[in-house]
């Protein structure tokens, strides 16, 4: 098996589906009564996907980590029924829940060194939607997740009989989908800017070390950064994504911190991205996310400052792809876009963007 350094890249973009694409596919598949197995690199968001799909379908999530469960916790235990003079099956609590009400049963780490006993229990859960004599509610669905065989992770082969009971999907690393998810999830704007600039190579890099960059570990780093003293932030980030990734992010963070978003919006500080340092993609991403972050964190934005938001979006050298990215980011503000739409300047900007978009498809 190749080691972690040999597998430092993520799946090619043409293999598998990104998070947003797969969410729709999994919801449709489960809604049709077909169980799903999602495989992907460690930390790419398989568990988060299960939680989002369950929430989207209005189902409670029953999260079962197979590698951490004794087979008896899946299939239940038998006890002597003296009155009937037979062995009776006592089901786990999660089985009672799955039988009494619709839920999503999520079998996580399904191929993480699980035994044949685990697989036998999983087979009945997936195939028959039951455990022993206890049949699941008709509305209960089953989703499973596991790592890819080529990753530096412990993986057991699943039986062909079990594999044949799933619809199979692969969740690939996709920075654009993660940025869209991360914006809604409140990921630190500097991290979003860094990932936006460097893409999949920064979002996922399995170096073989204990800590390495994944969508999950960047989310962890974002949580640790919130409210942490500046002098310990690098160590906190390194604990999540590894020292190498933390150093690269720290270098980018210094670029991000040079953007004076307050002056750009409140003073109308003009920006020109056509030459010099300002023309570098790293700085453009930093400016877009820094200004969006400042706007999103402002409870009140004065009416006289709104035209400056459009002026920034109209900055020379700010290509349409960055303008679209900027507008997507400021959607998080509760009423900013609605207020901007009343401005003739914004209406003209929107018309230009629509015309450009239509022209690309003619």
Labels describing this entry:
alpha/beta; two-stranded antiparallel sheet; Rossmann fold; 18 helices; 362 residues; five-stranded parallel β-sheet
Q: Outline of this structure?
A:
The protein has 362 residues and is α/β, with parallel strands linked by helices. The chain contains 18 helices and nine strands.
Walk me through what this model shows.
The protein has 362 residues and is of the alpha/beta class. It has 2 domains: 4-171, P-loop containing nucleotide triphosphate hydrolases (Rossmann fold, 3-Layer(aba) Sandwich), CATH 3.40.50; 175-360, no CATH class. Helix content is 50%, strand content 11%. It contains 18 helices and 9 strands. The chain has a 5-stranded parallel β-sheet with strand order 2-5-8-1-9, sandwiched between helices. The protein has a two-stranded antiparallel sheet with strand order 3-4. Strand 6 (130-131) and strand 7 (134-135) form a beta hairpin. Helix 8 packs across helix 12, helix 10 packs antiparallel against helix 11 and helix 12 (243-256) packs across helix 14. The longest helix has 17 residues, at 281-297. The radius of gyration is 25 Å and the shape is elongated. Mean pLDDT is 86; it is low at 1-13.
What is the percent of helical residues?
A: 40-55%
Number of structural units classed as domains: 2
Contiguous uncertain segments of 5+ residues: 1-13
Task: Write down the overall mean pLDDT.
Answer: 86
Which sequence of strands runs across the widest sheet?
A: 2-5-8-1-9
Radius of gyration, taken over Cα atoms and rounded to an integer in Å = 25 Å
Biggest β-sheet: count, sense, barrel?
5 strands, parallel
Element pattern in H and E: HEHEHEEHEHEEEHEHHHHHHHHHHHH
Number of strands: 9
The computed structural class is alpha/beta
What portion of residues belong to β-strands?
Answer: 5-15%
Separation of the first and last Cα atoms? 48 Å
Shape: elongated
- The DSSP helix count reads 18
């Amino acid at each position: 098996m190749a080691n972690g350094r040999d597998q430092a890249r993520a799946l090619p973009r043409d293999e598998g589906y990104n998070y947003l694409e797969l969410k729709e596919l999994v919801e449709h598949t489960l809604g049709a009564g077909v169980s799903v197995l999602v495989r992907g690199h460690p930390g790419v968001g398989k568990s988060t996907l299960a939680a989002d799909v369950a929430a989207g379908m209005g189902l409670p999530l029953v999260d079962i980590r197979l590698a951490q469960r004794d087979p008896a916790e899946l299939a239940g235990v038998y006890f002597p029924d003296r009155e009937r003079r037979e062995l009776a099956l006592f089901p786990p609590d999660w089985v009672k829940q799955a039988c009494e009400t619709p839920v999503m049963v999520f079998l996580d780490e399904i191929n993480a060194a699980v035994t044949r006993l685990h697989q036998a229990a999983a087979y009945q859960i997936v195939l028959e939607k039951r455990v022993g004599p206890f049949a699941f509610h008709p509305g209960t669905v089953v989703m499973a997740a596991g790592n890819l065989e080529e990753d530096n992770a412990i993986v057991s082969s699943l039986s062909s009989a079990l594999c044949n009971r799933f619809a199979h999907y692969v969740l690939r690393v996709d920075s654009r989908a993660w940025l869209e998810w991360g914006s809604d999830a409140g990921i630190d704007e500097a991290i979003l800017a860094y990932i936006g600039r460097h893409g999949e190579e920064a979002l996922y890099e399995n170096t073989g070390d204990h800590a390495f960059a994944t969508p999950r570990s960047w989310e962890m780093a974002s949580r640790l950064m919130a409210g942490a003293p500046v002098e310990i932030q690098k160590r906190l980030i390194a604990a999540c994504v590894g020292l190498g990734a933390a150093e690269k992010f720290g270098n980018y963070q210094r670029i991000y911190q040079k953007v004076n978003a307050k002056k750009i919006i409140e003073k109308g500080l003009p920006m020109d991205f056509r030459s010099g340092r300002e023309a570098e993609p790293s700085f453009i991403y930093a400016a877009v996310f820094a200004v969006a972050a400042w706007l999103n964190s402002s409870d009140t934005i004065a009416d006289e400052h709104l035209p400056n938001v459009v002026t920034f979006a109209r900055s020379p050298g700010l290509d349409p792809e960055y303008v679209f990215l900027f507008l997507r980011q400021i959607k998080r503000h509760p009423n900013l876009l609605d207020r901007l739409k009343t401005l003739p300047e914004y209406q003209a900007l929107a018309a230009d963007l629509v015309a450009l978009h239509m022209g690309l498809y003619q």
